[in-house]
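#onboarding

Welcome to the new folks! Below is a worked example of what a typical request in this channel looks like: someone posts a single protein sequence, and someone else replies with the predicted structure as tokens. Don't worry about understanding the tokens yet, we'll cover that in week two.

Example request:
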Amino acid sequence: MRTTSAAAARITAAAAGALLTLTAVAVAPAQAAGYRYWSFWESDGGTPWAYATQGPATARPADGDAIGFRFAVSDGTDDTSLPSAAPGFATICGSVERKDGAKRVAVVVDFGGPADAPPAEAPPEKRVEVGCARVREEATGAEALAAVVKPLRYDSAAMLCGIAGYPARGCGEQVAEQARGSAPATAAANPSAGETGGGGPSFGVLAGGAGVLALGGAAIWKARRRG
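Example response:
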């Protein structure tokens, strides 16, 4: 009886260990991912960069404001890299006089580094472009950007995809976080590996775990019957 009880205890412990392992797999994301895109930043009258609450096609900066664009891989607005140049309106637009019916907007464009570049592309040698846009008073951020750097590339949903020809292709692709600094891989490159549909473990992981626990329970039942 003691031997049977000891065997049952060992099987129970093994089943519990399997359950803990499965729980860890279920909680841990299969692969952290981010997006590669042009983020849009604003500075109101010399304040630090703040993530814009609307897109450049609808935002209307005022005279004395600065707008910034940064190409980077990020998994959310909180950790999207800021433009590396400060929003210095006085430095960028100090020599540009204001005219009636127009406003001045400082524009900063940061093309990012090699780690953020799409496959087979590289950022321009001059990483940061700055300029002062003197545009009509009702002009949007997109108009101010176009006054400083061209060409601009948009997708069918009016998302800003490329500035000054960079990148040449793509628009807001999902990118595996581990791919930064190497050959980036999109999350859809291997849809059969770890595909969850909602951030949780795949059906195969859960089904396999259920099988492990069921086998453990059956072994315990048989050990008790033999006792």
